Amino acid sequence: MVTRRAFIGSVAGALVVGGVGGYFGRNLLTPSTGGIDPVLGFTGLSLQTAPPRQPDHEVQLNIRPRPPVPIPEFYFEPTGLLVQPGQTVRFSAVTPHHSVSDFHPLHGRDLRVPDGVPAFSSPVLPVGSYWLYTFEKEGVYDLFCGPHEYFGMVMRVVVGSATGPGASPPPPPIPLPEEGATLPPLLTGAAVLRDPALDGNNIVQKGTVTWDELSADSKKLLLALAP
Predict the structure, then answer these.
(1) Considering only CA atoms, which of 50, 78, 75, 85 is closest in space to residue 160?
(2) Cis before residue 175, ω within 30 degrees of 0?
(3) Which domain holds residue 148?
(4) Tell me, what's the pLDDT at 226?
(5) pTM (2 d.p.)
(6) For a Cys-Cys bond, which of 90, 106, 164, 191 suits 55, CB 3.0-4.6 Å?
(7) Within a domain: residue 225?
(8) Could you write out the three-class secondary structure of the chain?
(9) Is 65 part of any domain?
(10) Where residue 99 sits, what CATH number does that domain have?
(11) For residues 119 and 138, what is the distance between their CA atoms, to the nearest angstrom?
């Protein structure tokens, strides 16, 4: 029997990893025209791929062991980042099978980026590749990795000031919303975004917040492997 939770999880994953497949295919198959698309960003499939512009910041997409738990930690580093309007961030895939998407109704998710910002997403990135995105509009941007959000792989980018829908705390990790509703941040991803270290004003003050600055309680797994 497929549980409601499993169904919602599979739908959310499909929306992120497959549902915007047209975007991904266009991004990978169409040569760059020299810019960074506001929906597709820019994907460099290797370190030898020249970017259309030099990034102002870098975020690494990481995995590390979580002994004795068999599921490792999946995380953005840094997990909180301050940028200025018009600056570009490079998301570097130093470990496999990650993506970068915003919380947006067109992804089936609650809006947690500034009003008017489009639904944007990277493809699932191979190791050694990178993805560029330029943050134009001021406010808070909550981002997630499609395959690993449930395990805590989310981050917060503050552009200029901590304003907009993402500036308010997400709902607690559980319970799940009503059927048919857009989905808030889920499971450990929700707990990470509620960590005080990722408060938007703290990010503005510090500039960056590392994964290690978050509390251990925020990183606890709320999803286990089935036997």
Answers:
(1) 85
(2) yes
(3) 4-219
(4) 61
(5) 0.84
(6) 90
(7) no
(8) CCCHHHHHHHHHHHHHHHCCHHHHHHHHHCCCCCCCECCCEEEECCCCCCCCCCCCEEEEEEEEEECCEEEEEEEEECCEEEECCCEEEEEEECCCCECCEECCHHHCECCCCCCCCCCCECCCECCCCEEEEEECCCEEEEEECCCCHHHCCEEEEEECCCCCHHHCCCCCCCCCCCCCCCECCCHHHHHHHCCHHHCHHHHHHHCEECHHHCCCHHHCCCCCCCC
(9) yes
(10) 2.60.40.420
(11) 16
If one counts the domains in the chain, the total is 1
Residues in Cβ contact with 125 at an 8 Å cutoff, skipping those fewer than 6 apart: 43, 61, 91, 93, 98, 99, 100, 131
Residue carrying the six token digits 């998301």? 91
As beta bridge partners, residue 5 has none
In a domain, 12, yes or no: yes
- CA separation for the pair 179, 5 (Å, rounded): 11
pLDDT of residue 175: 67
